[in-house]
User: Which sequence fits this backbone?
């Protein structure tokens, strides 16, 4: 079948049948649900933990903060592929979490890149506000929650969008850690259209289009945050 | 309200690259109850660090800080019963003015009725009633400054701390706010510790002034005393504008010799200079105590010298004349009707009754303790 496939630049007739096949023959809705759920959870965890850590590195004095920060940054130089197998062994053999949401989410709950982004953003917030809040009898977590987070909204928006997009598009780790059809994300699901001897390009492309649509909508509706995200920390405001 | 006391307070900062830096070198002083004390000095003199140590935002390396009758060394800022107004106002930008004012009291879990009353009271004192529902960004610099003060007032603290609160305002507004702060002190009857690098603010607001330099307290005195009897050359040069002139001089017999001219010194001054017979001293004379010979009201005309005028600055209410005396440039603040132009050989009258003398080695004032 693959040998007989002749790609055409302009189709002879318009057909929606690949879309029908994509939804009818697979668990497409389940995959979309999985992708959405995982992306939302990862966005929330990344925003929370990266903001906390970023705030600590930017504004709090504690012994060894510089050293810890540089070690964290150093880990960014380790290629993700290197840690993949140990991570798999840890998740499946040690924690027995194979084929679960937890296994997909846990390793990406917060990334060093996001901590770095938030640290850069938090550094631009005036320290006197933290002191004012401390004198205003605010607890340390209260300072973070009531004073810092509301001011960090632009940074958080950027972080949230970037994390959501990256999580939605993630392929390799979910592919590796999931076995069952119902645990797949939409990106992993698309790969199931590659059969041993053929590929259903029509349905696969239909799925890819569906999978890309939320990102396209997100990008155009939040364009200014994307652009802001590129310049955070690059230009002193 | 309460007194504040520093007992041998020392603060060092450790830096990986620059080593240890002493910001405050063993300070000892007492700020009395309801007193308005101003810390003044150049950048890096330790004045802000001292204030932040009272607030609890910095911990001293050694020594004790007392507020009221408690040693507060290990107390958190919120437990010290102080309120602070910051240089950049530090208003919470996402909160309305009302929320900004009530934030501290809410954190202290005060009853709502009490909070409302305090906010209303502070707003009426500072004329902020109409803007309680606005955000800080909708306010002008002067209004933000008032909110920052209001945030301190609602707390009804034992001690108010001000960290250069007027330095971000323009000159006109600064004068207006300065007057308002002075009135506020009278109205609240509060103990106020105020930090500034502006000596005019220090002289006009402070009941007593703490002059600091390189982490050391140079002198603690009333504005009048600082001006009239500075303890050393730093204080003499720092207080007063334009700064005091320092002129190299020799004491010989009853005379002080300055660049080929000599003056007979008044008897009381001579007595102070007894141990400096035949030695070098630094003569300190404020610009306002040097007059042109044509307009020198009520000044004995027996201490005169001639010099060539190098620069004339017309300020309207007075003129500044600059002339050379040996290696030093001397400034005279003279009456605007004094006749002078650049290059003119002018006779100046020095009011030696107001002269100060300093030891050239120790830079300490001679004859003062």
Assistant:
């Amino acid at each position: 079948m693959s040998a007989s496939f002749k790609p055409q630049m302009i189709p002879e007739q318009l057909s929606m049948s690949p879309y029908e096949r994509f939804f009818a023959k697979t668990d497409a809705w389940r995959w979309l649900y999985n992708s959405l759920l995982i992306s939302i959870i990862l966005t929330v965890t990344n925003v929370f933990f990266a903001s906390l850590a970023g705030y600590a590195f930017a504004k709090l004095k504690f012994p060894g903060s510089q050293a810890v920060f540089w070690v964290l940054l150093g880990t960014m130089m380790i290629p993700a592929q290197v840690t993949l197998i140990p991570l798999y062994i840890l998740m499946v053999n040690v924690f027995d979490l194979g084929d679960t949401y937890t296994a997909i989410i846990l390793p990406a709950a917060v990334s060093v890149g996001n901590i770095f982004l938030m640290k850069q953003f938090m550094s631009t917030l005036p320290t006197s506000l933290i002191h004012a809040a401390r004198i205003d009898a605010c607890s340390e977590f209260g300072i973070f929650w009531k004073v810092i987070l509301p001011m960090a909204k632009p940074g958080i928006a950027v972080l949230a969008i970037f994390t959501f997009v990256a999580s939605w598009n993630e392929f390799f780790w979910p592919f590796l850690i999931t076995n069952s059809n119902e645990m797949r994300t939409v990106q992993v699901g698309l790969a199931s259209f590659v059969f041993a001897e053929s590929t259903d390009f029509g349905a696969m492309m239909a799925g890819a289009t569906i999978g890309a649509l939320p990102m396209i909508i997100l990008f155009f509706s939040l364009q200014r945050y994307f652009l802001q995200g590129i310049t955070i920390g690059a230009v002193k405001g | 309200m309460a007194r504040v006391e520093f007992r041998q307070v020392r603060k060092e900062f450790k830096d990986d690259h620059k080593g240890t830096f002493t910001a405050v070198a063993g300070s000892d002083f007492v700020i009395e109850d309801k007193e308005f004390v101003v810390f003044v000095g150049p950048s890096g003199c330790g004045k802000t660090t001292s204030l932040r140590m009272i607030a609890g935002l910095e911990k001293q390396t050694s020594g004790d800080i007392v507020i009221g009758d408690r040693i507060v060394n290990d107390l958190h800022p919120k437990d010290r019963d102080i309120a602070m107004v910051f240089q950049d106002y530090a208003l919470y930008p996402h909160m309305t003015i009302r929320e900004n004012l009530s934030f501290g009291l809410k954190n202290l879990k005060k009853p709502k009725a009490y909070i409302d009353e305090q906010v209303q009271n502070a707003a009426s004192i500072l004329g902020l009633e109409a803007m309680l529902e606005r955000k800080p960004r909708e306010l002008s610099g002067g209004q933000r400054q008032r909110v920052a003060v209001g945030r301190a007032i609602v707390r009804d603290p034992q001690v108010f701390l001000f960290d250069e609160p007027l330095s971000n305002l323009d000159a006109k507004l600064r004068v207006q706010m300065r007057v308002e702060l002075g009135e506020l002190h009278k109205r609240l009857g509060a103990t106020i510790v105020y930090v500034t690098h502006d000596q005019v603010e220090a002289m006009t607001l402070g009941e007593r002034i703490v002059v600091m330099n390189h982490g050391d307290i140079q002198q603690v005195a009333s504005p009048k005393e600082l001006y009239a009897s500075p303890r050393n050359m730093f204080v003499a040069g720092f207080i007063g504008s334009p700064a005091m002139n320092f002129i190299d001089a020799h004491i010989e017999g009853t005379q002080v010799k300055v660049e080929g001219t000599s003056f007979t010194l008044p008897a009381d001054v001579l007595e102070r200079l007894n141990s400096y017979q035949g030695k070098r001293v630094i003569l300190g004379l404020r610009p306002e105590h040097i007059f042109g010979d044509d307009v020198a009201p009520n000044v004995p005309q027996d201490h005169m010298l001639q010099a060539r005028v190098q620069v004339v600055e017309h300020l309207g209410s007075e003129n500044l004349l600059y002339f050379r005396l040996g290696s030093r440039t001397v400034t005279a603040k003279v009456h605007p009707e004094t006749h002078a132009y650049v290059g003119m050989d002018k006779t100046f009258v020095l009011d030696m009754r107001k002269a100060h003398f300093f030891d050239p080695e120790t830079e300490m004032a001679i004859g003062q303790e």
User: Anything to note?
Assistant: The interface with chain B takes residues 126, 128-129, 131-139, 142, 147, 150-151 of chain A (CB under 8 Å).
